[in-house]
Write a structure and sequence with these properties.
Length: 164
Amino acid sequence: MNGLLIGRFQPFHLGHLDALQFALSKVDKLWVGLGSSNLPSQKDNPFSAEQRKEMILSSIDETIKEKISIYFIPDLDNHIKWIEKIDTIVPKFDIIFSNDDLTKHLYSKRSIQVITIPFFKRDKLSGTHIRELIISDQKWDDLVPDGSKIFLEKIDAKNYLKNL
């Protein structure tokens, strides 16, 4: 059975890693959709799809890499066209993992099971919060997996984010 997990992963943090592992416990193969892949770098979406893919792949071990495939999912103005676009990008899936009410609603009209992802330390693990910590030079590196940490240090994330 195949599943789909869509997220922005801005940046990929420990909550995302937990969600990925949760989803993998329910399916054989997991398609990971990088949402907003067509947007330029901006304050709320600072990292490109390629950068997010690099963070994810450098944060997971080989056994997980064998079970996932990463796809770039663009934003569209029309929600129905958005899920139709996903159908053209991602191979068939039986389950979608999402906490987004609109995504749940749209897929509930199809024969695709929607599973809510348990939040892991949601008060601390949000991309917005982590980006704010980075910019304000506070401790953030314990909120992301090692792969994301290395990537963010490599690109000098504090200055990168401040310049957006």
